[in-house]
């Protein structure tokens, strides 16, 4: 299995992980044959380089992996992962060189280097096996890797195979794996159940809009995750240009990420009451599309003036957040590929998030650094509240001017959360634009490991 460590009893070659400045000293301490091998091959310990050390019979008996410099490693999420696909086939055991506080992350990167999106053709990379390093929770690392693979697969699947029906099926399959209950409200039943915004956004599509509701766990604090499940976004009547529509299969990245996080939580058996809400729609164009200047009433009763049908994600999230808030969870988190403004602000590598809780923010940021899942806090900036108040309705879904777009979107969502003890919103990208060690190009997990790492403190687990 690509996301499993090798059998610890298996024969494994030692892997020496060397920083650039350590190579000469290490080589000087080895036998003549090893020293000559290092010198003749010009191995410098540069990050991402490897060298096989042959035995007397010519068969590799050990391997070296360059660990570069601290400055080079700071530019990589998983500095060692590049070695996993470069080493000769076989199984390896880290013998030297990775700091204890980096072992779990490097082991995770190693497993993730085996990911390839293979639904339509085999793209599985050839990757060397690794015995789990001593001192890490190997089972947890495997869970993290498999959960990220789920998220990547969901995001990578095109909309013809990952519409609202398929996203529902994925949630049901995940729920069945861990004994969670999943209920779904579809089509016109959304109106009867008072989810008017979800219905309005998705009613023009061939597949009916729906709200997926997963519950798991009977004891402990209440955690509710809300993920944007826009399976494709044409922009609606405010149709996107070609250059902006090309990646819109990933507009359900928020849903994919909360399902990945839910899988982590359930597989780890955390003692909490988990609820996952996913409004699953396609923002399409038809005779019954919602229109610019429409005024829609939300589940919460707030009215929303539609000034751009391409700002649909906040609408479907609004109804789902209002439902979530009715149960007063101890922690409520929303995740969405919501705004281009967030990408302009922090680029594709960081997941910006918003919260009014300073302690929660610190816990999430620190966990993100520990678990190689970096996040960056942005403010719920109160002076911008006026920008989302159009006058003719309670809220404007797309304030004119384009300034502070990520913040105004977050402020919009916050209007639908009143009773939850703690709330955080993540405006993620969910896409890796270029391949990097442990990070294939394509669908991407952003934020769930940081959230997972913060849960023990945030919920007193």
From TrEMBL:
CDD domains noted in UniProt: Peptidase_M17
Listed GO MF terms: aminopeptidase activity
This protein's UniProt keywords? Aminopeptidase, Hydrolase, Manganese, Protease
Specify the Cytosol aminopeptidase domain's residue ranges: 308-315
In the record, which residues are listed under signal peptide? none
- PROSITE patterns hit by this protein: CYTOSOL_AP
Matches recorded under InterPro entries? Leucine_aapep/pepB (IPR011356), Peptidase_M17_C (IPR000819), Peptidase_M17_N_1 (IPR048816)
Secreted keyword on record: no
The Swiss-Prot or TrEMBL record describes its family as follows: Belongs to the peptidase M17 family.
* Protein name as catalogued: Leucyl aminopeptidase family protein
The organism named in the record is Thalassococcus arenae
């Amino acid at each position: 299995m690509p996301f499993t460590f090798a059998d610890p009893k298996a024969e494994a070659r030692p892997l020496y992980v060397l920083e650039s400045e350590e190579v000469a000293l290490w080589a000087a301490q080895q036998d003549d044959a090893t020293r000559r091998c290092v010198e003749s091959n010009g191995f410098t310990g540069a990050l991402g380089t490897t060298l096989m050390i042959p035995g007397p019979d010519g068969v590799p008996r050990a391997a070296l992996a360059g660990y570069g410099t601290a400055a080079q490693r700071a530019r990589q999420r998983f500095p060692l992962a590049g070695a996993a696909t470069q080493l000769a086939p076989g199984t390896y055991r880290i013998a030297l060189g990775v700091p204890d506080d980096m072992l779990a992350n490097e082991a995770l990167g190693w497993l993730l280097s085996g990911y390839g999106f293979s639904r339509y053709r085999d793209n599985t990379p050839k990757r060397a096996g690794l015995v789990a390093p001593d001192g890490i929770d190997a089972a947890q690392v495997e869970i993290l890797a498999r959960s990220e693979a789920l998220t990547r697969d969901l995001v990578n699947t095109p909309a013809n195979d990952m519409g609202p029906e398929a996203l529902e099926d994925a949630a049901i399959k995940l729920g069945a794996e861990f004994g969670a209950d999943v209920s779904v409200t579809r089509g016109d039943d959304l109106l009867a159940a008072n989810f008017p915004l979800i219905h309005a956004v998705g009613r023009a599509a061939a597949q009916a809009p729906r709200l997926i509701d997963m519950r798991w766990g009977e004891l402990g604090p209440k955690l509710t995750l809300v993920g944007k499940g826009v399976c494709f976004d044409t922009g609606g009547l405010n149709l996107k240009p070609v250059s902006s529509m090309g990646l819109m299969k990933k507009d359900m990245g928020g849903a994919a990420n909360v399902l990945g996080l839910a899988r982590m939580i359930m597989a780890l058996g955390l003692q909490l009451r988990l609820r996952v809400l996913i409004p699953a729609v396609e923002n399409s164009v038809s005779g019954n599309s919602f229109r610019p200047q429409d005024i829609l009433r939300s589940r919460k009763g707030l009215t929303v003036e539609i000034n751009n049908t391409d700002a649909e994600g906040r609408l479907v999230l609004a109804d789902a957040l209002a439902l979530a808030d009715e149960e007063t969870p101890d922690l409520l988190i929303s995740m969405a590929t919501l705004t281009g403004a967030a990408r302009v602000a922090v680029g594709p590598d960081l997941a910006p998030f918003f919260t009014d809780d300073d302690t929660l923010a610190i816990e999430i940021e620190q966990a993100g650094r520990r678990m190689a899942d970096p996040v960056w806090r942005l403010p719920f900036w109160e002076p911008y509240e006026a920008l989302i108040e159009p006058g003719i309705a309670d809220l404007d879904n797309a304030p004119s001017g384009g300034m502070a777009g990520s913040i105004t979107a977050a402020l919009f969502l916050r209007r639908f959360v009143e009773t939850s003890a703690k709330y955080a919103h993540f405006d993620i990208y969910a896409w890796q634009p270029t391949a990097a060690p442990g990070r294939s190009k394509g669908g991407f997990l952003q934020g769930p490991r940081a959230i997972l790492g913060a849960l023990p403190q945030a919920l007193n687990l």
